[in-house]
């Protein structure tokens, strides 16, 4: 046999052995859940063919979940438009703005299950009824116009109505039975109350002021505010379902408002003209006001349901010299926050947590208030921090 033929035979045998070895490795990899292939494709977001979102870090460990021992954990690694505690109190509901789906996960994070068969692209916000069976969802159409969708969740079935195109503000009653929305009429606005099915419409207020924002805090009382800016004053007033109004705050620049769950008191933040000297106050419906020892925006706070008069607020470590809140809303500036517990009756403030690099918004508490959830404004991811008992 020639030397050339021997080389060919040896090379052929080597190739066969290599193929056999690779096949064996692949078979072993399928049996080994922590093998190379599984690690290569682990984590990530399951597209509409699947049901789960796996929240894993670079080492393949689940972020959050029942085994998490960290004071801080991620709930969703994708952008979240809005989140809340589920109706049964044992989980978190959240809308992913990138895919338009509603998901539920445990209070301690982990895999999230899709709970609605409806896809709403470009979701930017949602407001839920107390029982979480109805939601007012805000989304953006292709022409960049805001639209409002009232949704009723029945198991995995979702039914709903889209509000008129002329609607520029809308809110949902706490019991989910009614809605209120504002439509432009000339240079002013008309406020309409209707059932959450869109029927039984009734005009309850015409205002010469445009750009009204609506909040429905108790079943029979709404609150209206003109749109805020560092360069224009806003006012706040209440509106009963029968149409009676009462002014609560005279014009203030940079006005932000956050009502307590019972509507009996509210936080408000304001600035001097031009967005300077940010300050936070608490007020009640008896015209009593107290300046609080925290320099932050009211929308970076959440009221406690278990501790009367207590709020948790994300307080920026350093404020920008640019006008607030406009420069923060636009994303021109962002903050690094510390988390504080504030007793609005005494003014006492205690730092809860300061080990983070988050710009905290859309905060809410678990039923036992052992977890505080928030969206990081920098990337819209959803997080939770465990509160000391």
Automatic annotation (TrEMBL):
Superkingdom of origin organism: Bacteria
Alphabetized UniProt keyword annotations: Membrane, Transmembrane, Transmembrane helix
Transmembrane segments: 7-28
Record protein name field: Dipeptidylpeptidase IV N-terminal domain-containing protein
């Amino acid at each position: 046999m020639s030397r050339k033929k021997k080389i060919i035979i040896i090379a052929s045998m080597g190739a066969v052995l290599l193929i056999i070895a690779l096949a064996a490795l692949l078979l072993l990899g399928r049996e080994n859940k922590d093998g190379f292939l599984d690690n290569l494709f682990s984590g990530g977001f399951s597209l509409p063919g699947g049901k789960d979102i796996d929240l894993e870090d670079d080492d393949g460990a689940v972020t959050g979940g029942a085994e998490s021992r960290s004071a801080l954990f991620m709930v969703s690694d994708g952008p979240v438009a809005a989140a809340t505690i589920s109706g049964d109190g044992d989980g978190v509901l959240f809308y992913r703005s990138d895919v338009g789906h509603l998901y539920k996960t445990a209070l301690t994070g982990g895999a999230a299950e899709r709970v609605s068969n409806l896809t709403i692209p470009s979701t930017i916000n949602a407001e839920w009824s107390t029982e979480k069976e109805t939601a007012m969802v805000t989304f953006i159409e292709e022409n960049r116009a805001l639209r409002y969708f009232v949704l009723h969740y029945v198991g995995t079935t979702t039914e709903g109505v889209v509000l008129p195109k002329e609607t520029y503000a809308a809110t949902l009653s706490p019991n989910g039975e009614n809605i209120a929305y504002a439509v432009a009429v000339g240079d002013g606005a008309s406020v309409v109350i209707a059932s959450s099915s869109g029927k039984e419409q009734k005009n309850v207020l015409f205002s010469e002021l445009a750009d009204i924002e609506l909040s429905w805090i108790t079943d029979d009382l709404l609150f209206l505010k003109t749109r805020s800016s560092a360069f224009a004053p806003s006012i706040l007033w209440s509106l009963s379902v029968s149409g009676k109004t009462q002014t609560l705050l005279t014009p203030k620049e940079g006005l932000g408002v956050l009502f307590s769950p019972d509507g009996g008191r509210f936080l408000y933040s304001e600035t001097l003209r031009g967005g300077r000297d940010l300050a936070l106050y608490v007020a009640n419906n008896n015209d009593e006001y107290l300046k609080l020892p925290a320099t932050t925006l009211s929308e970076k706070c959440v009221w406690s349901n278990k501790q009367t008069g207590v709020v948790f607020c994300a307080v920026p470590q350093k404020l920008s010299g640019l006008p607030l809140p406009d420069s923060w809303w636009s994303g021109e500036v962002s903050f690094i926050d510390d988390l504080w517990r504030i007793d609005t009756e005494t003014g006492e403030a205690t730092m809860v947590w300061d080990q983070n690099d988050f710009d905290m918004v859309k905060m809410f508490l678990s039923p036992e208030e052992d977890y505080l959830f928030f969206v990081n404004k920098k990337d819209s991811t959803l997080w939770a921090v465990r509160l000391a008992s």
